[in-house]
Automatic annotation (TrEMBL):
<protein>
    <recommendedName>
        <fullName>Lipocalin-like domain-containing protein</fullName>
    </recommendedName>
</protein>
Length: 141
């Protein structure tokens, strides 16, 4: 009888989980994210797109997040492109939007990223598409 009860409870727990349980939850505010990135230089320490680790494509590239939603990307001290960034909360999730339109490598990270975790020196994000969960981690330089 005990085994039957355990089996029932286990079955209930397994089937009661849904995709909502996998949604990123972060208690940080938009203002905290802005204050963390603004006027700071960051680099990509992890970028996975469509299941493939593409972090090495961003070796040597740094990002300067400026006020008023401007972002500059540099490679070896040379300006690659100026883009935009913004933060917002959508359905209770903190989003970090990064947009570049001129450089193919930088366009790859242009997306609306869900912030999973954030410290003063590291921001971990993800974006889900139809087949994969893309990941982007920024590390303060």
């Amino acid at each position: 009888m005990k085994n039957l009860i355990y089996a029932f409870v286990l079955t209930f727990l397994l089937f009661s989980c849904d995709d909502e349980d996998k949604d990123p939850i972060l208690n940080a505010s938009e203002e905290e994210l802005v204050n963390t990135v603004e006027n700071s230089v960051w680099r990509i320490s992890l970028f996975i797109e469509d299941g493939k680790d593409e972090t090495s494509d961003y070796s040597g590239i740094t990002f300067n997040f400026l006020p008023a939603g401007k972002i500059e990307a540099f490679n070896g001290g040379q300006l690659m492109e100026e883009g935009t960034w913004k933060t917002l909360r959508d359905d209770g999730k903190l989003e970090f939007w990064i947009t570049f339109t001129q450089n193919e490598i930088l366009e790859e990270i242009s997306d609306d990223w869900y912030v999973l975790s954030m410290t003063a020196t590291k921001i971990e994000m993800e974006d889900d598409n139809d087949q994969f969960i893309d990941k982007l981690t920024l590390q303060k330089k």
